[in-house]
Every structure is written in C-alpha cells, then in structure tokens.
Specification:
Elements lengths: L5 H8 L3 H4 L6 H17 L6 E7 L5 E8 L4 E6 L11 H10 L3 E8 L5 E2 L4 E5 L10
Parallel strand pairs: 3-4, 4-6
Antiparallel strand pairs: 1-2, 2-3, 5-6
Protein name: DUF4143 domain-containing protein
Organism: Paractinoplanes deccanensis
InterPro entries: DUF4143 (IPR025420)
Length: 137
C-alpha cells in the first residue's frame, strides 16, 4: 500500500481542477491517496487499536482499505471518484463480506456525492466529506 501527500501530487500532475477532472486524469488515484492518508492519520487517535490494510484476491476482487480491530471485526472502505454510486461499486466489499461472515461489520463506498445511501445489509455509500465532519449527537 502506497500513498503520498495528495495535495503535492495533485500540484505535480495538474495546475488546475479542470485538468485534473478530465477523463483519464488521475483524480481517482489522488482521491484514494487522500482517503488512505486521512484514515491513517485518524487511526492515531482512535479509541480502538485498528490495523489498516488492503484486500485483493486472485479473482481481482479488491477493497481499497480494510480496517480490522483486535477482535477481528472488519470495516471495508472503497473509494470512488464519482458523484453517483451503483451496485457494481460494492463488488469487492460483497466478496470480503462473504469471506468474513459475522466478522464483517460494515462496508462503505466513499464517493463525491452528497447523500448517504443504503446498498444492502451492512453496505452504505457515504460522501467522502464524512471523513472530516462530525456527526450530530
């Protein structure tokens, strides 16, 4: 797993947002790097000790971030640089859930949209902005 300062990387590959958002531009990898960096930083003050890893199997099912606590409970996080999300975006999370059974707590697709949406049991699409917003009590 490799991630860098996404702000510096974005500055290196594009001088303005229009270039960065063009088809084929690296916005997706930059957003993924940003999310991984943010998750890694937030784990330093988490009340639970959690390991951050990546999941990929031989059939190319993949999950960008796998958060696992000491009890073996897992939350999977997939990052999509899109304003809409569909069932196929949960492909890797569903595979991971099937392999882990009850140890799979939740699967989240972080995307650039604005609404939290259900996609089945334990699966949600959540705006990437949730990473820095505090939920109301």
């Amino acid at each position: 797993m490799v991630f860098v300062d996404s702000g510096i990387a974005a500055n290196e590959v594009a001088m303005d947002a229009r270039t960065l958002l063009r088809p084929g531009a690296p916005f997706g990898p930059l957003l993924e790097s940003f999310v991984l960096s943010e998750l890694s930083r937030q784990l330093t003050w988490s009340e639970q000790q959690v390991e951050l890893s990546h999941y990929r199997d031989r059939d190319t099912y993949e999950v960008d971030a796998v958060l696992e606590n000491r009890s073996g409970q897992v939350v999977g996080v997939e990052v999509k640089a899109a304003s809409t999300v569909g069932p196929d975006d949960f492909r890797g999370l569903r595979r991971l859930a099937g392999r882990l059974g009850d140890d799979f707590v939740a699967g989240v697709v972080l995307y650039t949209g604005t609404s939290t949406l259900p996609f089945g049991e334990k699966l949600r699409a959540v705006p990437v902005s949730a990473l820095w917003q505090v939920a109301a009590p």
